[in-house]
Design goal:
single chain; 455 residues; alpha+beta; Jelly Rolls; 8-stranded antiparallel β-sheet; 4-stranded antiparallel β-sheet; 16 strands; globular; binds 2-oxoglutaric acid; binds fe (ii) ion; iron; dioxygenase activity; dioxygenase
């Protein structure tokens, strides 16, 4: 059965001050901000001030200082026109470099940023059909047992996966059924550590943690990582109501949100070859000498072994990460990903679905961040000491920006039961998926063995 997405009203009107949508949003804004202090921003860091600006619901933020490289690519014109948002192709100083690989391949160009050495943007690197495969993988194949999601702490999710059950509901195979809260059943909290978010499912909490390194690895590995207790106040909830509450799914090594450390005692989790192949392809195509050739003056930043980017083509091996599922109202506050022992090796971040404003700053929140518009199929690589531990975040998902190539049934369905794209499309109209892939350990380092040897 083919499912077609329900059409949604266009949000382009929000940019037109004479439209009814704009006036309605203005009334809502006046109501909600009537009691707000005028001087609330006195202490904001430059990063916080930028977050506030792009987050604003009304008036919709001006994106003319946001780098949007899709505007420089005639093949992306229809994508870039979506939602009425207007970024700028040369808002930020960056330099074009050519990727290795054959001339015909799309995504041949990448961009590097003199202000943030080690940051590489690969616009439209993931071909359209591969974007669809990754979306299916993220929702149907990955966000389910044995991989953890934010919902597992609190709910006993269907064994066949929340999204697979939802697909069956939407294609008329079964009724929408209730999912029971974990606390309502006579079961222990998850047998293994999960998150410390005891309250109802919501956005990711940001907790300060010590940067991981080979020196403190043993201490980190031995820190107790107790399971998070499930919320006691939840009621049974229909499958369809939980789908928009899916916020993250773990990839590879299990992450303990309470301590913001990996829990190596659980062994390495699964990492799909689909994801590994895309990430290795991206890292393998980058002419790293052009990224770091001029910036290795301060070798100490790279740690005792010095710069290792010359070897990444052989040593890059993703082993952990997270799939982030954003609804259009969600944000991800400024943070640094510093739980990985490898503090310089590439972090590969794949954007799918609606576009977003991504901010990347420096080693503190006091540096003004660079705003970059990320669209479906774009890859961001954060690598090297200046970038890998730079503050970054996502203050805005841009409404109405699902690209045309993620609309309509698959050109060639890969199997008869994959004529269900309409359900994915409908979800993606209000969502962005980010596949954020990391390397925790240097190649050849065995955390279980090495951990046991010295403990
Ligand atoms: O969604 C993104 O583009 C970034 C996500 C991120 O920074 C993270 O998962 O740590
Ligand atoms: Fe991050």
């Amino acid at each position: 059965m083919t499912v077609t997405a329900q059409t949604t009203t266009t949000l382009g009107d929000m940019h037109d001050p004479t439209s009814a949508a704009y006036k309605k949003a203005r009334r809502k804004h006046w109501k909600s901000t009537r009691n707000r202090s005028e001087h609330a921003d006195a202490d904001w860091t430059p990063f916080r001030a930028a977050e506030k600006r792009y987050k604003a619901r009304f008036p919709p933020p001006d994106l003319s200082d946001v780098l949007d490289l899709a505007l420089a690519d005639p093949f992306r014109a229809s994508e870039a026109a979506r939602g009425g948002w207007k970024g700028c192709a040369n808002a930020v100083e960056c330099r074009e470099i050519l990727l290795h690989g054959s001339e015909e391949e799309c995504g041949r160009k990448a961009y590097i940023f003199p202000g943030t050495p080690g940051l590489v943007l690969l616009p439209s690197f993931v071909p359209h059909h591969e974007q669809r495969r990754l979306v299916r993988w993220a929702l149907r194949d990955h966000a389910r047992d044995p991989n953890e999601t934010n919902l597992d702490t609190h709910y006993l999710l269907p064994q066949d996966g929340l999204w697979s059950r939802y697909l069956r509901i939407r294609t008329g195979v079964c009724e929408d059924t209730d999912v029971l809260p974990r606390a309502s059943q006579d079961v222990d909290p998850l047998p293994t550590p999960m998150t410390s978010e005891a309250e109802a499912p919501g956005p990711r909490k940001l907790i300060a943690n010590d940067p991981a390194s080979a020196d403190n690895y043993q201490t980190l590995a031995n820190t107790p990582k107790p399971p998070a207790p499930p919320s006691q106040s939840l009621h049974p909830a229909p499958v369809s109501s939980l789908v928009p509450k899916l916020r993250w799914a773990n990839i590879g090594w299990y992450y303990h949100w309470g301590t913001k450390q990996y829990d190596f005692s659980r062994g390495p989790g699964e990492i799909s070859s689909l994801v590994t192949v895309v990430c290795k392809r991206a890292v393998g195509r980058i002419p790293w000498e052009q990224v770091f050739g001029d910036t290795t003056g301060n070798e100490a930043d790279w740690g005792p072994a010095g710069p290792d980017w010359t070897e990444w083509k052989e040593t890059y091996e993703p082993d952990a990460g997270i799939v982030n599922f954003y609804q259009t109202k969600d944000t991800l506050m400024a943070h640094v990903d510093r739980s990985e022992i490898c503090a310089t090796s590439p972090l590969v971040s794949i954007s799918l679905g609606c576009a977003a404003v991504f901010l990347i700053g420096g080693l503190t929140r006091d540096e003004s961040p660079t705003p970059i518009l990320l669209r479906s199929g774009d890859i961001v690589i954060m690598s090297g000491p200046a970038c890998r531990r730079a503050y970054h975040g996502v203050p805005r998902i841009l409404e109405g920006t699902l690209p045309p190539h993620l609309e309509g049934p698959d050109a060639i369905p890969s199997s008869p039961d994959e004529d269900d794209w309409g359900v994915y499309e409908e979800y993606l109209r209000g969502a962005r998926i980010n596949v954020n892939v990391r390397q925790v350990f240097p190649k050849g380092f065995d955390p279980i063995l090495d951990g046991n040897e010295t403990s």
